Amino acid sequence: MSELLTHSEQELRDAAALAVDLAGRRGVGARASASNNGFAKIEVQAGEVETAERSGSQSLSITVFRDGKRGSASAATFDRAAIERVVEEAILIADHVQPDTDAGLAPTEWLALTGPQPEMFAEGQRDPETLMAAAFAIDQVAGAIAGASKGTLRVGQCAAVGSEGIWALATSDGFCRSSRTSNDGRWCVMLAQDDAGSTSDYCQSQERRPEDLLSAELIAQRAADRAGSALGARSIRSSRTPVLFDARTAASLAGELAGTLTGMAQYRKMSFLADPIGRAVCASHINLSEDPFEPLGLASGGFDSEGIAGSARSVVRSGVAEGLFLSAFTARKLGMAPTGNADGFYNLRLTSEADGGDWQAMLARLGTGLVVTGLHGGSTDPASGNWTRAVNGLWVEDGAVVHPVTDVTLAGSMPAMLKGIVAIGSDVERQGAIRTGPILIDEMQIGGSA
Amino acid sequence: MNGGELAIARVRERLLAPADLDEAAIGRALGELAGGGADIADLYFETTSVRSWRLERGKVTNGSFGMRQGVGARAAHGGSVSFAHSADVREQPLLDIARAVRTLARHGDAVRHPQGVELTRRAGEHSLYLPAETVAVADAAAWIALLERIDQTAHAADPRIVRVDANVRAFDTSILVANAEGEIAADIRPMTILSMMVVAEQGGKRARGQAGIGKRTGLVAFDTASVDTMVKTAVQMALHNLDAVPAPVGEMPVVLGPGYPGVLFHEAVGHGLEGDHHRKHLSAFEGKVGERIAAPGVTVIDDGGLPGQLGSLGIDDEGSAPDRTVLVNDGVLTGLMQDRLNAGLMNQRSTGNGRRQSYADLPMPRMTNTFLANGTHDPADIIASIDRGIYATEFDGGQVDIVTGRFNFTTIEAWLVEKGKLVAPVQGATLIGVGHEALQHISMVGNDLGFDTGMATCGKQGQTINVSVGQPSLRIDRMTVGGQAS
User: Fold this and answer.
1) Closest chain B C-alpha to A115 CA, distance in angstroms
2) Strand spans (E) along A195-309
């Protein structure tokens, strides 16, 4: 057993199975899950530990079903008395609500009773001493970069975090499986200052295996480069121009496309792409694919919280939506087959059939327009697709960077933006579940005060 | 009454006694925690039950009940904080996390309280909000009926309403904090949040509306009149947005309505005046205290002691009584909001702003109820003064970059104003500004101070807490509005 975790996978499977068994004795079908997570985090600033934290959490939750009625309850302990109380509370709720026949357990033929589980855990040193050394290593490199900057740069926070988790799921149909995950993170915040004021930016690396993390040198250097490159930023005039989202900000556009294709958004009419299956939702050269089984992928999984496996598949092909992200519940609501996405989407990749080229090539394609490197606040109206943000970035003319930009807004309509994708660059980055290169959009509205 | 021995007894009954933990054992754990010469050592116990009922398509088909409890142990040596927490509050796990914190802190074994800490400094009572039953299953039928009526009322209001979602989340939280100075304080914090969302549809166009009510009490406070007002608010927002035209773009005058638009001051001023950002030299406001940042007549206050507001606290999460901190006084930047750690390191005193999301999170300086004080203008005159600009009445949250002072917030209900008249509703637009500059453009402050309806939350370093924001109507002469229309 890891020193971050307090329970074994077997103990969690036993707890979940006991909950389902106790529910069965009360005459109700049930789905129960048990989880245990442990993490350690060290944040340092100016050569000193700012916070040192070590924590564990655990949870047991159950949803019971009887005659189309359901109820859910949870507690933070695994002892028998607590599990009995949780079952009792869930049944009490089911006694009060109205039936919804779409809300039952997933039928056995949909369950991933066997089948592959992707690699989601890697052994690694995640004790506070190791993390402290890692955080100090970044702080030291960052300090050297700041020291050489003649007062332009200052180190903010440097941090290292490690976590491990186990999760078990049991259902009345005899499903009882568990999985184990690990996560390692490092980040560095750098501040840059000149006569006009200060600015800050960061670089974060997140993996399932410590060996895969970016080096301290790269993390500190990228944070320094990003913070420094925003110095001297100014606003620009309001205008309509082409916009190039760098890979980091492009991931949020890909996430919004996926989010609007979830069953919940579709069925609740909170999607800006109504009835999307078989319709062109993006430019005709755009593909979105999903892979639940990528080894050590940050969004990999063998089955969702209903016990249903996902599949490696195309969601958008040549701009046309081919699939949605569905749970058993939303699949029934929409009259479709479930896709194993009760907990959201697995690893996604947004690509273009058109040749995008590297960063320089993308700048050349942009020609004259705005590069977006930071998105701040704002919102996307889930019903209408109206998209509005505060952004910062770079002003580019004839493919060459002219000056950094801040104090501007950017607005558009998601359906039009997706159809207006001109190219996706080849400098692909991964942000959590999403891989994409920089995205070039034909035209958006900039609001500025220059 | 609330707080005092009454609240301590509640935590003893619900959390400590079932775990065979008494005050002497808490004192022993504090003695262990404070070893090695900690400047601050405290334990924070919490027990929370949450009950929810959810309505969709006219029926309540889903409900949940959750229980969580635990203790967080913190020790600070100078600005270096060590923290661990446990869901198990029995004495042995408690001593284990106290020792884990000592190990993390690496400050040796010097014993300061060999006999344990005696908890003799006991907090007094308060009556800011009272203990209330919030999560009883006996209220189920009444809540379900109330949610069904929301659905019926919303659909009856207009045939273009095609979807109604509503839910209630009720919290029953009790907390107890004890520290190595021998202080002990507890608080009972009931909270109920009713919220709804509607979708209106016409000619293939969809628009959303939302509204909610949050209170530190139970079912009894959700009377027909206030629920009907909530439904009307959500329905009207959706119908306005159905007719919305693209928002204008560029610099223009902006009128903000009363209530939740006060999130402007939460973002533009409040966050930049949290003590931790100043101690770490991160705030754009550093060194500006005492300077004029707004016109005379602009006074911004954080007050954790306002009855009826969700940001109010009988005690903060470090056991301090809430203050009324004047952040901007008649245009001049005046105060910082402090927790104990940052106050101690900056040679100031806590202002009762030490707050945390749960026992599993560290306290930080956080806002409570933050608002702009009343001015003298008639709100109608403020709108009438605009030649071309926007009038915004509801926002979808906001954000600030502490380092640069740049803030933004996004409208969810706003109008285009021309020649002093509301011309048409406009789609959501992001409004941006820089904290120490934007407030200088406030030229008119109304006399209609109002607060949000209990739905405001604030996120900081991953921790979300309930706050309140408020303001009277006001005019900002120049702001960048990020609409789609050129």
Assistant:
1) 31
2) 197-207, 239-245, 286-291
Which pair of structure tokens corresponds to residue A138? 């970044």
DSSP letter, residue A232: T
Within 8 A by CB and 6+ apart from A89, the residues are A71, A73, B65, B137
- Evaluate whether ipTM surpasses 0.85: yes
Number of domains forming the structure of chain A: 2
Q: In angstroms, rounded to a whole number, what is the distance separating the alpha carbons of residues A218 and A203? A: 9
Q: Which of B383, B400, B396, B390 is nearest to B452 (CA)?
A: B396
Over residues B174-184, the pLDDT tens digits come to 999 999 999 99
pTM of the model: 0.95
Report the distance separating Cα B193 and Cα B169, nearest Å.
5
Rounded CA-CA distance B234/B455 in Å is 13
Question: A25 near A112, Cβ under 8 Å?
Answer: no
Judged on CB neighbours under 10 Å (0-12, 13-18, 19+), A417 is buried
Superfamily of domain B2-242: PmbA/TldD superfamily (3.30.2290.10)
What are the tens digits of pLDDT across the range A356-387? Answer: 999 999 999 999 999 999 999 999 999 899 99
In whole angstroms, give the CA distance from residue A278 to residue B70: 50
Q: Which of A295, A260, A258, A328 lies closest to A111 in space, CA to CA?
A: A328
A73, A274, A384 ranked by CB distance to B66: nearest: A73
Residue A391 included in any domain: yes
Tell me the C-alpha distance between A323 and A338, whole Å: 10
Boundaries of CATH 3.30.2290.10 in chain B?
2-242
CATH number at residue A48: 3.30.2290.10
**Which pLDDT does position B114 carry in this prediction?**
78
Contacts of A409 in chain B (CB under 8 A): 249, 408, 429-430, 432, 480-482
For residue A351, the tally of other CB atoms under 10 A from its CB is 18
The predicted-structure confidence for A9-64, as pLDDT tens digits, reads as follows: 999 999 999 999 999 999 999 999 999 999 999 999 988 999 999 988 999 999 99
Residue of A60, A238, A240 to mutate, testing the B interface (most B Cβ within 10 Å of its Cβ): A238
Collect the ranges in chain B with pLDDT lower than 70. Answer: 109, 486
Is the Cβ of A92 closer than 8 Å to some Cβ of chain B?
yes
Q: Do A98 and B60 touch (CB under 8 A)?
A: yes
Question: Are A204 and A265 part of one and the same domain?
Answer: no
Q: Is the dihedral of CA B271, B275, B278, B279 positive or negative?
A: negative
Alpha helices in A207-358 (DSSP H): 216-229, 247-260, 263-267, 328-334
Per-residue pLDDT for A317 more than 70?
Answer: yes
CB B29 within 8 A of CB B50: no
Residue A324: give the domain boundaries: 239-447
A291 with A377, same domain?
yes
